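Why predict the complex rather than its parts? Because the way molecules touch one another can change local conformation, and only a joint prediction can capture that. The input here totals 300 residues.
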Amino acid sequence: MREEEEPNWFARWEEELPRPEELMPLSQSLITSELALAFDIPTQNPNPAPGVHHHGSTGNQHSASPPLPADIESPDHSAPTGDDSARTLKRPRLVWTPQLHKRFVDAVAHLGIKNAVPKTIMQLMSVDGLTRENVASHLQKYRLYLKRMQGLSSSTAGPPMPMSAADAATEQLFASNPIPHPLLGRGAPGLGQESFMQFMAPPLLQHHQQMVAAAAAQQQYYHQRQMGHFGSPGTVGGGYDHGFHTRGALPPHRMGTPGFGMVRPSVPAASNSYDDDDDVDSRVGGGRRVLTLFPTCGED
DNA sequence: TTCCCAATAT
DNA sequence: CATATTGGGA
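Output of the joint prediction:
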């Protein structure tokens, strides 16, 4: 007698949730190049299930989803025992690129304040290699950022806010992406974690051997960005320069030899946003080689 | 058990 | 400096 349960809320979920096309490409990034090379992982593109067809965008439309740029610091742990997958090993420092953060924010926005807990966020993001700790740590920072923003926006004729350099830096990242409004108190109405988890599980868990090579060698050692100043979000001084291409498909080249590589003594140009910059950003700064991978992420 | 927050370490 | 890690309360 009761054939239809609640197609309503579920339908809503389907629309609100990122489509498989958006989630799948995400699960490829957090692998270190060394690991990929060590395992001789082919640069197979996860071929986002073409079977899924969702066209009904009732106001919620996303462009094709770009590969996720999760950047990791070079592990530089020589040859893991071999059968140790990236799990017990010490993971390299996660670099939160705007795109990665975008997914983070997206997940939080969809989950709502109530459900936006590290574990859930992590699962929703579906980024292979992302750990709860990663998310938790960033979540903390993100919350502080939001708080700061709100308290700050209220202050009209206040005295010059002595923003710390650290604060400015964080804002740089966060300012790169829009802050969802509903974030401030909206969640799945009547839905508990458990409820939606059932539906999310299948797509998330289907990441069989989806270890795709990240890209070229990511000799990210340290990430110190001595950016000039802060001020206007949007003009975030990034200074991205094109090093070489290695996005999407893995370059047949085995580059990334530690110790040299594409060292390019180019000072950060006055570039800015990452909207059309989709390559590897490699720059040398004070002896520290930094390689940041960027996707051609146009995102929305 | 996980979350959350602050401090601390790298 | 950005994350990671830790510690203790909820």
